[in-house]
Amino acid sequence: MGGLTQKNVVENENNGSNMAETMLRLVPMALCVVALVIMLKDSQTNNFGSLSYSDLGTFRYLVHANGICAAYSLLSAIISALPRPTTLPRAWTFFLLDQVLTYIILAAGAASTEVVYLGYKGDTAVTWSETCGSFGGFCRKATASVSITFIVSLCYVGISLLSSYRLFSKYDAPVVGHYNNKGGVEISTY
Amino acid sequence: MGGLTQKNVVENENNGSNMAETMLRLVPMALCVVALVIMLKDSQTNNFGSLSYSDLGTFRYLVHANGICAAYSLLSAIISALPRPTTLPRAWTFFLLDQVLTYIILAAGAASTEVVYLGYKGDTAVTWSETCGSFGGFCRKATASVSITFIVSLCYVGISLLSSYRLFSKYDAPVVGHYNNKGGVEISTY
């Protein structure tokens, strides 16, 4: 195989890897937008009164988290699609922001799940009523939005793994030399 | 420097790194136990009635999450203190379990924060009352337990970074060869 062919193979493999990462970042972007729109349109008015997502602080936080996540996903997808080498500062930036986004979106999902749970079950000890008995449509939409947010969290767990692999595989392995019982030095290699 | 001296330096550095990791794992263990005990003892009885942590599903989840986290932290601290080389299966196990624990404890903290927030602020739209007006002592203890859980989350974010560094630095860097505009091949090295 000639030198040029070898280089083309490397180039193609790298483009394929970039393409996969771009897709992995576009999927949560789409899901975030869907979760955002479902939650924004979530309001119900009936004989018991009126209830909107903006009445609950957690759902407002969920909307913001999904908005930030959608914007970041789009931006990072565009950057990862650019055919440029992965520099160390870029790997660090992606790694740190991916981690932060994962924690933000997971926290939003967990807190919102708690509110949806309280809405369905209520809590007699602290006199919180089962809101979903009166506002079933509201709760179903909220559940859908929260479920999609959890899928986004899973995507971001995957993205975090990928970006930590990209970052840390640039560094050398930590020293793992040891004396074993027989007094020799044992080096782990794989 | 002779070969034996060099080996001793390697050995000492490695022991220091293991010691640091063991300490990093013992700190969240202690914090988990504190958060667990505070929450377990959190109950209040007054003229308005009686309220215990076990009346709220989220706080029960928080107690379980803290218990699991304390047990895992202790076990992993013991294993990381053993003077054995970090093998690839061990690095993978630590990495995956550390990630799972980080997400579990962060989700417990986020959901519990939401309940504490609702306890203090209430929500008039869904007729949830401000429980903390009547059960101030209960809410203060719950807040303390949740705050400590967040510090545990921060510790676990650090532990996750460490274990992902340990794992992925064992792998080679992904291929980053590219044609630049001048037709040559550009390889990023740092």
Automatic annotation (TrEMBL), chains A, B:
Membrane topology listed for this record: Multi-pass membrane protein
Casparian strip membrane protein domain: residues covered: 17-155
Family annotation (InterPro entries): CASP/CASPL, CASP_dom
Chief location: membrane
Subcellular location: Cell membrane
Similarity section: Belongs to the Casparian strip membrane proteins (CASP) family.
Protein name from the UniProt record: CASP-like protein
